[in-house]
Write a structure and sequence with these properties.
The chain has 322 residues and is of the alpha+beta class. The protein is built from nine helices and 14 strands. The strands form two sheets. Strands 2, 3, 8, 9, 10, 11, 12 and 13 form an eight-stranded antiparallel beta sheet that branches. Helix 1 runs antiparallel to helix 3 and helix 2 packs across helix 3. Bound molecules: ligand DP6. The site of ligand DP6 has 15 residues, from helix 5. Ligand DP6 binds next to helix 5.
Length: 322
């Protein structure tokens, strides 16, 4: 058996959301997504060769049916019929709408490939990670990352140093696992929401605006596109049958707190994924004020302060990370 290899990846926060798949069954996104890799949060995944596949996430066995297509694709990519033992640890709540599958599959791809003694390019790692979870294609890269609709792999739009003043306040309103996974919710939305087709065309139209906001480091321009993307995604989910509602009272309180901050002239632009957490884009100089105000409006919530982070990397650890 080989020794352990440990890889680290950070979650990919979608500024423009991927929500919906192409119908060909190959896990390709129907909408473009643009994301920031969240420095300050990470998944560490240790892998080694073994007699049988087994993946543990935060001490719990991962669903073998979810892992099998990914591990089979990995074996065919590296041309070796090896099996893996992997252990993954998140520095943040798992399956709670904090994109743990993005960092999880990116780190798993990196660790297993290296444990098998192979190397893949970042593009090939991104394509492999996408088979596990579409958003994981983005976590392979640091900074600001684009995954066009229908693309096999993601690419970096701007490096982490492009906008060093940008901060992302992650407001954790509830630490539990979500009741409906992104994958199931996405399937229900695309098959039942009357707004799905419009969502696919509108999200394409938001991309140039968001890219321009990023290029100019213009928080308001970017923020408007970010807010439009998550608002449309959740409106579409509300209209699905059955209805999908991830928000809690504290989610709404944080959204309203951001609106109040903007009215006071502070750039605080929220976004929400498939869960009750709120992520707020702001500038470094405003971050403490944003944190204080959202905590006042939603007492008891936890916050993490994140920044544009690095992509997938091998660590020097030689043992599984506890
Ligand atoms: C709301 O990438 O977890 O976070 O491809 O089915 O594994 P699968 O879905 P996943 O969905 C992420 C949805 C999102 C938006 C985003 O990250 O773009």
């Amino acid at each position: 058996m080989s020794g352990w290899v440990v890889c680290r990846a950070s979650p990919s926060l979608a500024l423009l959301k991927y929500w919906g798949k192409l119908a060909d069954g190959t896990n390709l996104p129907a909408t473009p997504s643009l994301a920031v890799t969240l420095g300050g949060l990470h998944t560490d995944t240790s892998a080694r060769l073994s007699d049988a596949d087994s993946v543990m996430i935060d001490g719990e066995p991962a669903d073998p049916a979810r892992m099998a297509p990914f591990l089979d694709c990995l074996r065919s990519r590296i041309g070796a019929s090896v099996r893996f033992e992997a252990r993954s640890t998140n520095s943040f709540p798992t399956a709670a709408g904090l994109a743990s599958s993005s960092s999880g599959f990116a780190a798993l791809a990196g660790a297993c490939v290296r444990a098998a003694g192979k190397e893949l390019s970042p593009e090939d790692l991104s394509e492999l990670a996408r088979v596990g979870s579409v958003s994981a294609a983005r976590s392979v890269f640091g900074g600001f990352v684009l995954l066009p609709a229908g693309a096999l792999f993601a690419r970096q739009a701007f490096g982490p140093g492009h906008w060093p003043q940008l901060r992302i306040v992650v407001a954790v309103t509830h630490r539990g696992r979500k009741a409906v996974s992104s994958r199931d919710a996405m399937r229900e939305t695309s098959s039942t929401s009357p707004f799905y087709r419009q969502w696919v065309s509108e999200s394409q139209a938001l991309l140039p605006l968001a890219l321009q906001g990023l290029a100019d480091r213009d928080l308001e321009k970017l923020g408007e596109a970010v807010r439009a993307s998550y608002s449309m995604m959740h409106a579409m989910m509300l209209a699905a049958r059955p209805q999908l509602l991830y928000w809690l009272p504290a989610t709404l309180a944080v959204m309203q707190a951001c609106g109040e901050l903007r009215r006071q002239g502070i750039g605080a632009w929220e976004t929400i994924d498939a869960g009750p957490q709120v992520k707020i884009l702001c500038l470094d100089e405003d971050a403490q004020r944003v944190i204080a105000h959202v905590k006042e409006c939603a007492p008891g919530i936890d916050t993490f302060l994140c920044f544009p982070g690095e992509g997938l990397a091998l660590t020097s650890a030689k043992e599984p990370v506890p």
